[in-house]
Amino acid sequence: MWLTDALCRNDKLSAVCCQHEQAAAMAADGYGRVNGIPGAALVTIGPGATNAITGVAGAYVDSSPMLVISGQANSRILQYQKDTGIRQKGTQSLVLGNMVRDITKYFAEVMDPADIRYHMERAWYEATSGRKGPVWIDVPIDIQNKQIPDDMRGYEGSCQEFSPVDWDRIKEIVTSSNKPLIMAGYGVLSAGARENLLSFATRLSIPIVTSRGGIGAIPSSNSLFVGRPGSYGDRASHFAVQECDLLLILGSRLAQSTTGYYPDRFAPNAVKIMVDIDELELDKSDVPVDIRIRSDLKPFIAELNKRSSDWLSNDHTDWVNHCKYNKEKYPVVLDSYSKEEGINSYYFTKILSELAPDDSSVVVDTGSVCNIVSQTWELKGKQNYLISGGLSCMGFWASSIGVASCEKTVIALSGDGSTQMNIQELATLKYYDLPIKLFVYNNRGYMLIRHNQHNYMNDRFLGVGPNSGVPSVDFSAVGQSYGLPVVRINDKSEIEEMIRKVFSIAGPVLCEVMVQEFGIIAPRISSRVMPDGSLRAAEFDDLWPFLDEGKLDG
Amino acid sequence: MWLTDALCRNDKLSAVCCQHEQAAAMAADGYGRVNGIPGAALVTIGPGATNAITGVAGAYVDSSPMLVISGQANSRILQYQKDTGIRQKGTQSLVLGNMVRDITKYFAEVMDPADIRYHMERAWYEATSGRKGPVWIDVPIDIQNKQIPDDMRGYEGSCQEFSPVDWDRIKEIVTSSNKPLIMAGYGVLSAGARENLLSFATRLSIPIVTSRGGIGAIPSSNSLFVGRPGSYGDRASHFAVQECDLLLILGSRLAQSTTGYYPDRFAPNAVKIMVDIDELELDKSDVPVDIRIRSDLKPFIAELNKRSSDWLSNDHTDWVNHCKYNKEKYPVVLDSYSKEEGINSYYFTKILSELAPDDSSVVVDTGSVCNIVSQTWELKGKQNYLISGGLSCMGFWASSIGVASCEKTVIALSGDGSTQMNIQELATLKYYDLPIKLFVYNNRGYMLIRHNQHNYMNDRFLGVGPNSGVPSVDFSAVGQSYGLPVVRINDKSEIEEMIRKVFSIAGPVLCEVMVQEFGIIAPRISSRVMPDGSLRAAEFDDLWPFLDEGKLDG
User: Fold this and answer.
1) Rounded to whole angstroms, how far apart are CA atoms B509 and B36?
2) Tens digit of pLDDT for each residue in A323-379?
3) Using the beta-carbon criterion (under 8 Å), do A424 and B420 form an inter-chain contact?
4) Are A91 and B463 in contact (CB < 8 Å)?
């Protein structure tokens, strides 16, 4: 109550009122990813706080800086609840500490107004230093309304200790490599090290692949860009990983969805150097990394770029051309996709990414859409590219609300299931006239689960579409009911025209794309049938559809 | 994945697929409250689990039995995350223990398939025994698919220890009282003790007031029913509490929203006997209770009813008539409300409750609607009456989905803000053709906060309506876009006709009621201006509008 009033009275702050705290948290996450400093979500006591948890957890695993401020019961009541363990004393009040400590870098209940400067400075420090992440300040109602003393203790963060770097060795490894490869993860973007990385890679002609989180690190048209390896990857990048003799893993945590099922055979021919700010990630890797360096990517890559200015490295022309050859020979989006019945999501995405403005930001929700778009999107210029990486939470498209507050155009892409998870925010888009173009890939249900139940459950379908318990929603009608301009794409012949129409409309637009219900998702890591009939996960560079089968049938 | 398939293969179980886990948890809560046994919510890993937290927290503070089963990453990955504290290893996986332990009675990760019987039996026991509440079983993906041994250890709950009851003393106190009063809380309903309570009260002519949670304990037409005390209460019940010489507090935790700001002066003339199953609630009370009895209400009230069959108590005719006189003299719904401009929510609710079927269940969402409806609703027959009591979480109307699975007609009442919080579930209502009549009291924003900012912030409005950051939604249009029959009430002249129309339609209906934006919420506990100009919370029986002012002006 008093915090809201403070916000109201403060001319320097402006707020976007989301309809649901889940969306408010995701919007703050989106803001943080694009700006590198925390977006803030102000939520009410109890259910307001718990509603924000999914968004906060997503920001935590994806290293996004975020500040949550929650209202709380009177400090005496809160203390009583903490001391006794009673289910509740004050109206709506919940003790949040245990609930959010594992998904925040710092959590504090402000029990004394004189501590507020300490808590705020520390929260800001924690959110923005080291591996970034969310922080949470819980403010009892009586504290909100207190005068604070002029003289308060503050907080000064300490300098982080990083590994010493043996630059001579790195120089030797890099310059003697014939087939070097850079794997860029979100850490590069989080550290603001993109330009230095591209400068370094360009000077030494080192091809780049990106993890999902690192997609924004390099434009697709850059001749050094190879692809995006992972469970739903592309052949060129998988070949490159398995063939390279040096892999520089920069700010990528090498998640299983990136490295596949045989991490011990990931980049088997390469000397692997991994640089990460989080020691736990360096320790975690199932991939046998040769050199682990704990460092902030920003100074590390700046130093790498600077030092390499006089390095004489081997010639990589053949290697770069080889990667380029594979990329051209094995495109993700096949020509045949344009000829299929119905709208193939890959085909649609390719056209959309071609028509998307250079200066737009792209927010991709989870599910099959995330796989398809992340495989396909042709990143241009300095486009931001945001996904819910680690948590992979549905409804993430609403983080576009936070991105829209500082970007010209935001392209949000979402499946029908995920769109529903934050559908109430269509009202926010309309009210604030946000420049968000929301593309809903409507495949009538949950396509990834549909594939799973088809592949592993003998077509026993439950909860995947209109025939198994999940309604089909008319998003064009819903969008209109919220007052949004709506564009619906029913046929592939109208894709380009309709996309142009979407971008010609100022402000928010909902574009419903009636895509195939059971579209192929490929290439991907799948299983091979062994001679004895059992299934075995295929190798990292043996993506389905298997090349030796020469056909696409499952 | 495997749990969903198991559900699909089990003919004895049927599932309702909600669009959002938040709603699934609330639906399970609703099922539990109406049936007394746990409703179950099956949710997916990570964000699926965190999305359920608000609903689980609500069930916890409101003592509703519920079982949550969540999918989880491979047990090795889960163990690694627990051991190392790394942010994440498996895709989507979060360690849930700390996050949900404070809002569940039992939480278990099933790390060994042979433990599943133990965990399930213990979970069921905890959910349904003592003070009821939610339990949560987290099942790693590899465990889901394991064969379980035939011979597994189980769990047998122990008998609970309760306070010895000095029945002679209770008999003496009850029979010698001249102005006895029963305060019935949710504990009475949770224990299934309603019939015995009414039998006891009728035999001894003891008037009854109910807490919000206990509203379902007595039909409004019962001559012993006085009212529902609380921050938003009614004069008759507040007078009765302050005048009675004996207060039997049965299954009510005496929340501040029930007792007002001076708990030490709550029922000041009464011997107070409090019976509750939760020792912490008995210890908590700020109200000076004379006799605290820890007991299950079911055997206690059964015993009370049985023993009292030969008690000779004082005559309470005058007292009962006095309470009845106050109730008639000070109705909540004033005649003038029907003559106001626009639709007064009290007036509308009164008509709705008169026209509502006797065998319907009533689910009330939070906010001003909860206050208004809980003050006004004329409970009939065995109507269930559900609110989000302790947590008071917006979107609670979706618990009607769980209630609808076992009731003929469910009347869900919600404000516009709360309706938005689970708006995606309109698709569920439509798809499953649920007999839910959703009445949306559309006051264009958040009316309680609007009142607060008017009363305490000098009309500095933020986030309360279309002029301060919160869009107005056309719920009739949204309802139609989801395929629901829609009825809109724009004018008070059409209220009765339109309500009849709603009930004449089978299956789900959305009825949007365009109520006053700044309607009065009264009577309520407010503040009085002291001679020195300061504000002071009024006494419990001095409800606003203050009777000595004789007018309604703010």
Assistant:
1) 27
2) 999 999 999 999 999 999 999 999 999 999 999 999 999 999 999 999 999 999 999
3) yes
4) no
